[in-house]
Each structure stands twice: as structure tokens, then as C-alpha cells.
Amino acid sequence: SVPLTFFGGIGGASRHGILIKGSNYMEALANASTVVFDKTGTLTQGVFKVAVVHSSGLTDDELLHLAAHVEANSTHPIATALREAHAIDDCGCSVSDVQEIAGEGVVARVGGRSIAVGNARLMKRMGTTPQACHEAGGTIIHVAIDGAYAGHVHIEDIVKPDSPQAIEDLHATGVRKTVMLTGDREDVARQVASELKIDEHHANLLPQDKVASVEALLGARSKGEALAFVGDGINDAPVLARADIGIAMGAMGSDAAIEAADVVLMDDKPSKIAVAIRIARRTLAIAR
Ligand code: ADP
Ligand code: MG
Q1: Looking at ligand 1, which residue's alpha carbon is closest to its atom 23?
Q2: Which of 5, 58, 140, 281 has the most CB atoms in a 10 Å sphere around its CB?
Q3: Which fold would CATH assign to domain 49-156?
């Protein structure tokens, strides 16, 4: 039977905007020793601004036009940024055969040509090589037209103002290891991890690689310790389900994430994880 104090703990957490889906997660939260984060939308705002456009042959406007149309129906934050950089106008060009490849990007036919918009991995799949200048920071989204390299767009995401405190608080509560997983480039991952003082980071991961990373970390934890994964649900619902405690962002997160998660942070603030751990420990102490 579930001690009544557990309901008190769940109620207390909800007043902080932390939705805990069952009393069984109280114990896991209290014993969290490893906290694993997705980057985009979780530790960063996931609100990208287009910084620079480099195109070969096309004008910058033409490149952005193609990118925005290919991304017309994607819910990825990068797609939103590209649509904000160039409105979906009624250019009369037909968009068809849209294929979104998780962790890579989107391919579609626009006005009779095959357009690919995504990372270096996607360019390789299209049989072309990205020619990015790496001086500018941020995420780089490449464009290929009919398998030929056409240019790239630099887009910049920023760390949430709440993220540094979130990591500091976790270490202060005694969480032994913080980890960041991302499908983004190593350069970007290293910069964010060092800014936030995250113990370990892994970049260039596909959704299935994130599951494998979490499984390795699950295997490394000691008896009685729990692993929490925190994500926004875009491409990471399987990882949310695999962790001892799946924590989703409630405001920006996808419905799939909220569904797959055990704990939902209604205001998307990662600092609420340490708050949840402290409430869980207090609740367990009272129950014993
Ligand atoms: P993260 O691990 O940072 O949350 P994702 O796994 O969602 O990121 O995506 C990893 C990478 O795949 C992105 O950094 C981007 O390069 C590429 N990508 C994914 N979806 C898209 C898309 N809709 N358009 C362009 N690029 C994308
Ligand atoms: Mg993500």
C-alpha cells in the first residue's frame, strides 16, 4: 500500500509545477544519482535564430526559401527557425514526398527538384560533402539540391537562463554524474557542456545512439541508484521510456514526451529537477 505522505509529496511537487505521475517515482527520484539531459529544448531554449547564410550558386534568399518550404511541416525547433527566417509564401512551387529523418533532417521535392535540409550525416546520405566554414559557432544546417551541395545556414540556440543553476543544484544535492546527449555537432556540445559544468557529453548521436548511451549508463550505476533522463521529446521519447525516471518539458515538449514521461516539468525549467529530488527525499523520510 502507498503511504498517505506520498500523496502529500505529489501535491507539494505540483505546487512547484512538477507533475509526478505516480508514487513509485518518488523512491526513484530520491535515489537519483545520474541525471542525463538532451540538449536542444531541454538545456537550451530550442529557439534558433538564423545567423549567417552561405550559398553557392543561389542567392541567400533562394536558399532560405527552399529550406523553409522543405521544413514546412516539421515540428523540430530548427524547422521553426527556418520558417521564421523565410515565410512560407505562395510561390506556387509544389512540395511533395516529404521525408523527415530523425537526427538528420528533412528531404522533399520542391518544384521538381530533390531538396535535402539537415546535418552532415544527411549530406553524406545524399552523396555530397558539406563545405561549411567552421569559424562561426552554432548549429549548421546544410542544403543539397539533387544531390549537389548548395550551401548552409548557421543557426544559433542559447542556453536557458535557468540551466547553470539547474546543474549546480543537482551536484549540490549529491547527484554524482550529469551527462548531456545530443545529435548536434561536437563543437556545440563541448561549448554548452563546459559552460554548464556538465560532467560528460556525447555528440553526433542518432535517436537510437541516445538509447544505447542511456543503457550503458544504466549498467554503470550501483544498486539502489536511479538514472533520470530529461528531454523535450523531439526524437527522444524512446530514451524517456528507457530511463528509471523519464522527465519531460511540459510547455515546449511534444505530446509524445508528456505521454512517455514519468515526471513533467510544467514550466520547462531544468532547475525543478533538484527541487523534485529534494521533495522526494523529504517525502520518503516522513514515510519511514
Ligand atoms: P538534439 O539531440 O540536440 O535534441 P535532434 O536529435 O533533434 O537534436 O537532432 C540532431 C540534429 O539533426 C540537429 O542538430 C540537426 O542537425 C539535425 N536535424 C534534426 N531534425 C532536423 C530538421 N527538421 N531540420 C534540419 N535538421 C534537423
Ligand atoms: Mg532533442
Answers
A1: 105
A2: 140
A3: Calcium-transporting ATPase, cytoplasmic domain N (3.40.1110)
Q: Looking at this protein, which amino acid is placed at residue 215?
A: E
Q: Which ligand is nearest to the CA of 233?
A: 2
Cβ atoms 155, 51 nearer than 8 A: yes
- Residues bordering ligand 2, an ion, CB closer than 5 Å: 38, 40, 234
Q: Residue type at 47?
A: V
Q: Where are the alpha helices (DSSP H) in 109-206?
A: 120-125, 163-172, 186-196
| % of the chain at pLDDT higher than 90 | 68
106: Cβ below 6 Å to ligand 1? yes
Q: What is the CA radius of gyration of the chain?
A: 21
For residue 100, which atom of ligand 1 is closest to its CA? 23
Q: Is the CB of 169 under 6 A from ligand 1?
A: no
Domain locations along the chain = 4-45+159-287, 49-156
Determine if ligand 1 sits within 6 Å of the CB of residue 184.
yes
| Residue 287 confidence (pLDDT) above 90 | no
Q: Does domain 4-45+159-287 have CATH number 3.40.50.1000?
A: yes
Q: What are phi and psi of 180, to 5 degrees?
A: -120, 130
Quick: pLDDT tens for 123-173.
999 999 988 666 667 889 999 999 999 999 988 888 999 999 999 999 999
Give the single-character DSSP code of 146.
T
41 burial level (CB within 10 Å; 0-12, 13-18, 19+): buried
